[in-house]
Amino acid sequence: MININTLKNRRQKLANLINFPVVLWSGKSPSKNFKANHYPFRASSHFLYFAGIPIENAAIKLENGKLDLFMDNPSPDSTLWHGEMPTREDIAREIGANSAYPMEVLKDQIDDVATIPVQDIFTYEKQQKMLQRSLSINKASKEIDNQLMKAIISLRLTHDETALKEIRKAVNVSVEAHKIGIKSTKKCSTEAEVRAVMESYIISKNMICAYNSIVTINGEILHNETYHNSLKSGDLLLADVGAETALGWASDITRTWPVNGHFSSSQRDIYDVVLAAHDTCIEAIKPGVEYREIHLLGAKIMAEGLVNLGILKGDPETLVEKDAHAIFFPHGIGHLLGLDVHDMEDLGDLAGYEEGRTRSDRFGLGYLRLDRPLKAGMVVTIEPGFYQVPAILNHPQFKEKYDQDINWDKLKQLSDVRGIRIEDDILVTETGTEILTQNLPTQAENIEEMMR
Amino acid sequence: MININTLKNRRQKLANLINFPVVLWSGKSPSKNFKANHYPFRASSHFLYFAGIPIENAAIKLENGKLDLFMDNPSPDSTLWHGEMPTREDIAREIGANSAYPMEVLKDQIDDVATIPVQDIFTYEKQQKMLQRSLSINKASKEIDNQLMKAIISLRLTHDETALKEIRKAVNVSVEAHKIGIKSTKKCSTEAEVRAVMESYIISKNMICAYNSIVTINGEILHNETYHNSLKSGDLLLADVGAETALGWASDITRTWPVNGHFSSSQRDIYDVVLAAHDTCIEAIKPGVEYREIHLLGAKIMAEGLVNLGILKGDPETLVEKDAHAIFFPHGIGHLLGLDVHDMEDLGDLAGYEEGRTRSDRFGLGYLRLDRPLKAGMVVTIEPGFYQVPAILNHPQFKEKYDQDINWDKLKQLSDVRGIRIEDDILVTETGTEILTQNLPTQAENIEEMMR
């Protein structure tokens, strides 16, 4: 399952970029109710990138292309509860480590190493204690940490074949999960039931969800994580569900479909606008293109479509310049995908933003998670959406600013369109794109067909 | 859904036991890959007991039967991502709070209050900073904390009607999940597929799993949390899966069934021994009986059965006295069940063990999680098991000590019995017991019948 050559390659590539040693911790599973009732373990993505497999309570030291593994052997007592576990030597062999030591040896080898803070606070405290310096989550605390972050970002921005194989695996399972969700909806009476059908497929393939699923008739609540609503004929259901492989690689897919199997004419009108933006953005992807331009292109197609439907008034380009599109499409067109669903978001905008660039304070650009020129080997999502968010539409400031741009009467006729998003995972290739999620239909008529 | 009278009752009962103010924090969801990709939120059980509903980043002050709520209103930005959220005032009304304040007010009201540390380390650090004293997870750091823990334990040891209603809800969903798992197994080809079917039912009812499911053909690995094995005819599948309600109340059920629908004669022999222990223990439960005696009774019935099968040799009582039963049944007969699957295990043995008692160092008793006289209103699990744990059977020390007690040739004939456990949830009533999980068959023939 693990490709040691790939791992050694990644370690060597890191060595080509920096000239100081690095220690990366894997982390541990946080406890939920009490110590033995814990959340499932999820290793730090930076650790996974170089070590290949999730090992709890471990650390790796990377130096000159070599990897030393630090972990304790399972205690005899743990054999009773957890069975025969691989020893340190077994794991060292499996991941192609150059040496392997008990954890306590690490503290003598830790002078002047660079690191990246893990997400679990327990290990994070341990990191700081061992290194005898404080670490800030989200940003570098020391110049070598900063250099390390940049080096890792430059590696993880584009994917090797081993990574792509894993991402494809995750994508394929997610595609099937969505197909089953779409096909089962007419038999389901609640959001929770559709979620169950979709996640069940992911669990049956021995994968986990890469993020908390969104399965909702209130698609306008962008990060909705509740599933208590009943499904009613006439509702649209928005499902943003993605699998993650056992080695930690993610996928991220959204589809929106009508609960009763038929888009109403207003739903279909808006769906086709979102789909036009989706398709146009994907067609525009190729190496060298600025992702920010893809975002603005998506915004323009959305604005054009909404003007054609009589919902927005005026010239599409001018509307985008004044961020009128963002009334209905308030988030970014997408993000990097890899070991994390928003890849390397633990490093803040250092990963998503090209050096020297910062977040725009424009309403229609500030939520963009990625602002870099595209490169072959990157995987990005494209996920335009249309939402009627009460917090935006009823906001006095927005209402005043955009009052003349919106045909409010026309908008009232769209009360059955609360939220639509269409999201695919796109590999940037030398010549353009490969839509990794291409086996999942996007066209409204194909979705209706699947529901028949 | 929430019964304010029950909550007020619990608050008043606490006030009857202690004469100092208490602050309990709810906690927050730990981040997984990065801040926005977090584990699902699970509120501290002590907070849930008095506040009734999970509210992230909140605290309650309990004094003289009154409850003050401390939480910040959702930020305007969060409305965009999370929709209209209830305000502090809405929540205060919902949970019957006497007053409600922003979080920052708490630090002026926190002198000399008792508390219990939460499990999430982020909030735990905050607790310590606010209280300006250090807290140890698992034990009281100050005398008033100790008194608080004992007071809460005395309340949570037995359940009011509101709690029982929630536990019954969780149990009923788990019972159905097990039925579906049993009925679907012949169509499944991996552990992961059976897990998916079972958890899917729980998700479809908008509940979560109360703990990480065990669904394994290696039942001898007691806390097995992997699901990668294929199912082969002749395997037994052990499934320990339980639902938790939206308000946090747990259930905990285990069944073991043959993958092909028929117990082999060796599997059936051992199954019936475990079931005899299970049934005898449940029949012995009533107020006043020591749970430790139930455990020893289970051990004796197991030993008797194994002697009858010719696997153990000698007098059952003598075998139990020397812990020979624990070779095959190395864990305790069960535990408390409530808001936590091992209820109040965050307080260590302060909850599970009657004052003045400590863990036995006997191999056959030391893993017992509960050592108290039973009282009406308690909910406990009864979960005897038989396992062939290589770490025990091959352990030189055990091998030597028990060599004469075991018929090793006979044992060899049981190679298709790796692990069997049968676990039910039992309410202690004034007159004896109510088996909350009674709608799920335990008899081997009934399970075979369900699989037909």
UniProtKB/TrEMBL annotation, chains A, B:
<dbReference type="GO" id="GO:0030145">
    <property type="term" value="F:manganese ion binding"/>
</dbReference>
<keyword id="KW-0031">Aminopeptidase</keyword>
<keyword id="KW-0479">Metal-binding</keyword>
<keyword id="KW-0645">Protease</keyword>
<dbReference type="InterPro" id="IPR036005">
    <property type="entry name" value="Creatinase/aminopeptidase-like"/>
</dbReference>
<dbReference type="GO" id="GO:0005829">
    <property type="term" value="C:cytosol"/>
</dbReference>
<dbReference type="Pfam" id="PF05195">
    <property type="entry name" value="AMP_N"/>
</dbReference>
<dbReference type="InterPro" id="IPR052433">
    <property type="entry name" value="X-Pro_dipept-like"/>
</dbReference>
<comment type="similarity">
    <text>Belongs to the peptidase M24B family.</text>
</comment>
<dbReference type="Pfam" id="PF00557">
    <property type="entry name" value="Peptidase_M24"/>
</dbReference>
<keyword id="KW-0378">Hydrolase</keyword>
<dbReference type="InterPro" id="IPR029149">
    <property type="entry name" value="Creatin/AminoP/Spt16_N"/>
</dbReference>
<dbReference type="InterPro" id="IPR000994">
    <property type="entry name" value="Pept_M24"/>
</dbReference>
<dbReference type="GO" id="GO:0070006">
    <property type="term" value="F:metalloaminopeptidase activity"/>
</dbReference>
<feature type="domain" description="Aminopeptidase P N-terminal">
    <location>
        <begin position="2"/>
        <end position="127"/>
    </location>
</feature>
<dbReference type="InterPro" id="IPR001131">
    <property type="entry name" value="Peptidase_M24B_aminopep-P_CS"/>
</dbReference>
<keyword id="KW-0464">Manganese</keyword>
<protein>
    <recommendedName>
        <fullName>Xaa-Pro aminopeptidase</fullName>
        <ecNumber>3.4.11.9</ecNumber>
    </recommendedName>
</protein>
<dbReference type="GO" id="GO:0006508">
    <property type="term" value="P:proteolysis"/>
</dbReference>
<dbReference type="InterPro" id="IPR007865">
    <property type="entry name" value="Aminopep_P_N"/>
</dbReference>
